[in-house]
Amino acid sequence: MSLTNPSSTGGPLSATTTSSIRPAASASVTQNLNLKRSAQAASDDLVDSKRSPGGGYTSKVHVREKYHIIGFISSGTYGRVYKAVGRNGQKGEFAIKKFKPDKEGELIQYTGLSQSAIREMALCSELSHANVVELVEIILEDKCIFMVFEYTEHDLLQIIHHHTQPQRHAIPASMVRSILFQLLNGLLYLHSNWVLHRDLKPANILVTSNGAIRIGDLGLARLFYKPLNSLFSGDKVVVTIWYRAPELLLGSRHYTPAVDLWAVGCIFAELLSLRPIFKGEEAKMDSKKTVPFQRNQMMKIIEILGVPRKENWPGLVSMPEYPQLQSLALSRGPSHFNKPSNLDGWYQSCLKNGGYSSTSTAGTPGADGFDLLSQLLEYDPTKRITAREALEHPYFKNGGQMSANCFEGYEGKYPHRRVTSDDNDIRTGSIPGTKRSGLPDDSVVGRVSKRLKE
Fold first, then answer.
1. Could you tell me if 126 and 388 are in contact, meaning their C-beta atoms sit under 8 angstroms apart?
2. Domains of the chain, earliest start first
3. pLDDT tens, 26-68?
4. How far is CA 414 from CA 64, 92, 291, 307, 451, in A?
5. What class of enzyme is it (predicted)?
6. Annotated catalytic residue 199
7. Closest CA to 361 of 314, 333, 323, 401
8. Residue of 155, 199, 368, 423 marked active site
């Protein structure tokens, strides 16, 4: 099965085909994802380097020789991201992610590479799909790692925010449909190659100026083809809180690709309502790194979906945090405990407030959209719809052809990603969060903080 290539000019997307657009997705991890190499071996393979007399590594490729840095995009715990253009005849725009260690004063402090950085390098160097962000190359220079990606002009968080200014105006239904289809298509490729993303949210869904969706930021991604190796043992907390699946909130030690599909459901709802559907407050871990029960976030889900029941979710009673869930439900009183799901009411209100057409199937997500959303936001992960099943859903089959350019037919213009020239020297930027940088720790976090005040 194949999918029509979403070229830069935009073309029809087939709802009856689900495999990858670039090299076909394969279920054989040994063929497509030979990711068992050590960090050192990965560095040797990915970076053409040589030993210097001082015992360090001197790269044959220097970042500033190949790329002209335009400006600073954002920073976070991993490092910093810059926008660049190619030099010496190399065309195109690029996003360069610089990992720590970084320069502190006049001394380069080598603290090693994070597990997140190693995973992202290993995975991105093997994956190739039109709906997954493209890694151009990895450069090692002065004990710093630079990942060079294709540059994308937008992300879904930016687009959603644009539709709230100066007043709320709905994202066109056809655009939502195309975004969701491309997102699911990229996710099917990842899952077919045994990769869980584990941090899907609007800020990590990138969009090119041609309306092509790219799944980005694979720093939390993991292979899941070793069923006896608990994913929980390596990362006790995954997925940004508003998009975290109920099985994760309830402390599941073994989880599946269904956690990514729950996040897609949350993103779908946010594209329609222009605000997070489950906007809870995160309880932080204590000094002993004990993972707390996310009571407030679970309450936000219950308010719309009702209390999960063991009759509909047999595995519920075996969840480590099941006693906490019972306590939460009982504290709200019998009437709240027996309250049914209000997702349909939330959805109908969302369509009304968004002004979606009540007559044209192309102008509204309609009943098909609600059915897909309800299957994505299914409590029981074993019953939750898969990426492959979702791509075959009537929501994509009905309502006419979809364009590979999600912006097709939209007359408005979205602002490009904010790039500042305050700190465009990729050599000397201090470690994120330090006073020397003089810049916010993460522009995406800043945007989320701004939305929290709404």
1. no
2. 63-150 (3.30.200.20), 154-397 (1.10.510.10)
3. 433 334 444 333 333 443 444 343 334 444 444 577 888 899 9
4. 30, 20, 39, 39, 19
5. transferase
6. yes
7. 401
8. 199
